[in-house]
What we know:
Elements: H1 2-7, E1 21-23, H2 29-40, E2 43-48, H3 54-58, H4 60-68, E3 72-77, H5 83-88, H6 99-115, H7 118-129, E4 133-140, E5 152-156, E6 161-166, E7 180-185, H8 190-207, E8 214-218, H9 221-228, H10 242-245, H11 254-265, E9 267-272, H12 278-291, E10 297-302, H13 305-318, E11 324-330, E12 333-334, H14 336-341, E13 347-353, H15 354-362, E14 372-377, H16 385-391, E15 400-405, H17 414-423, E16 427-431, H18 433-439, E17 445-452, H19 456-475, H20 482-493, H21 498-508, E18 516-519, H22 523-533, E19 540-543, H23 550-556, E20 562-565, E21 580-583, H24 590-601, E22 612-619, H25 642-652
Parallel strand pairs: 2-3, 3-4, 9-15, 9-16, 10-13, 10-14, 11-13, 14-15, 17-22, 18-20, 18-21, 19-20, 21-22
Antiparallel strand pairs: 1-7, 2-5, 4-8, 5-6, 6-7, 11-12
Helix pairs in contact: 2-4, 6-9, 7-9, 11-12, 19-20, 21-22
Amino acid sequence: MQDDQSSHKPRKLRDIEYSLLYETATANLIADFYTPSLEAASEYKRAVGYFTSSWFEEAAAGIAAFANNGGTAKWIISPKLTEDDWAAIEHGDAAKRDPSLYDQMETLVEDLELNLQQDTQNTIAWLIADGLLRIRIAVTGEALGGDFHDKWGIFIDGEDKVAFHGSQNDSRKSLSNYEANSVFISWGSTTDQQRVTQHEDRFDDIWANEKPGVHSFNLPDSISLGIAELRSDDRPYEDPGEKTKLTSPYRWRHQEEAVEAFLETETGLLDMATGTGKTRTSLKIINRLLRDDAIETLVIATRGNDLLNQWSETILDHFSAEEMFLYRQYSSYKELGSYLMNDSDRLDILLTSYANLEDAINGDMSSKLANGLLICDEVHNIGAQGKQEALGGTLDVFPYRLGLSATPFDPYDPERNEFIRDEIGPVVYEFGLKPAIERGILTEFDYTPITYKLSDEDKARQKEQFKKFAGLKQQNPSIPQSQLYIMLSRVRKESEEKLPKFRRHLELNPEILEDAIIFVASKDYGTKVQEIIYDYVDDFHTYYGEDDESKLDEFSTGKLSTLVTSKAISEGIDIQSVRNIILFSAPRSKGTTTQRIGRALRKDPSNPGKKANVIDFVVKSDIEQETVGDTGEDEEMKPPDQERYEWLTGLSKVTQQE
């Protein structure tokens, strides 16, 4: 009997005989309209003025079928707030940082938990966790001042669309009211087709927050995670695959964990692998502090104009002009004085280089920074000797201090590490490469070590470095071992013995130059590499300190297949399409290498099956022996390339578990 019934279920929207009008007085809107439409649809877009979880209970059968079909849903809902709550909200992006609105959104989790039967609750929770159901909150703009009150939706099956528009909210009570929905089909009259298009266009505009008079924003991840936590161990439908889960708040739940860890201590470091969302996590921290009325100003400091410009775009996208004033003090921007003198009700934000941070602190005569959050991005760069002398003992003027880095500490520079801990704080949250790959936030990768032998000239230069270091050690016994590693690495970075090995590998694997970044130690060495790749690609360019930043943009948009660069692109640049990393230059420290391979480990939503490839050059004798010559002491050390080889080999074996 069940098989016979299932054979009559519509496979496409076009198979359903739709009425022009559905009225609750003469039709069962759930059984006659919603359930068959959900069973046939692969996508559902719904905007509704009032929503309660009871609607899910009523439409449970259709939702289950929709989920089994791998359907994706977008819901725009209006929060239910009192007049006093509305008065407290400054419409626009500021609403998502308003405590009244946030409190109301938290009741959505309680509503789903208390009022749904277990099966329905589990389905909704899994849809949220898998990214199949996404919710945005809508509020009207200043020109309207009332509620977001309209109700309409669109069902899509890949070929056809059905739009409906009426008075019915998504609640159990609306099914017993006198309500009605008018229906328009894309395979109907020209007028019907136009109405379907109009309803979908205005939905999409609101979803993208591009509709005049209406502001929309994502349901906060903390709320989505609260819903996702209501699910059981068993997904009630087929696994939808990576494409939707990659954007699910549940996949990125470590960010909420990091937020809570920082807010508990108020100062400290987030040690998070490249590509796991340090910037987004810091924005969540900002939102929480603003919602709690804990800060009045924000200072973001880092090194490098690329990263500061990226932060500028992020801030302008995250905050409306009505919420904040943005000031910049780096490169040609000279706005520090205006920042320090400004006194307004808006959030004052300063973007500055580490080199100018001292001036900001010394120039703060009105104690403005005493109500602020300091974010130090790529925080390991603040520990350079010059910065220690300039900033030591001054950063505690900020009550909240947040450091961001995939590699905050250098194992060979204890003084730098101590300075960062003293001035910013200890690591309060860690999320490294291994758990990020296992969770599916970063992609798996293959590691291809290409072995080579040092030339007689290289060996002579290396021997000279050992002797030179021994002499330095005699003069200054406290000189760190890291100095020897730096001296040895210079020899290997410039070794020309890697070049013929690379040419032979390229002959067999020319595809490694597609979506590739080649890291070299210097422009001169890069020129030698370019002479090899000329025969394989012509759409490549260099990116050094003096190169036009437009080349980086061209590479990020796919106009260039290969970029030859140095450390200038190592930090903070987000290019998801990169698949191949070629390391002609790889220091002993994991820090720089982590930054560089991280360029290729970012997931690409347009390519869910992406797997990265890391090509490295390793001195053959380094991985065949346990120690190198000694430095005049009993202390032994691993050969310079061995530690990196073992580390990357181990990481390449990590697979996605979640």
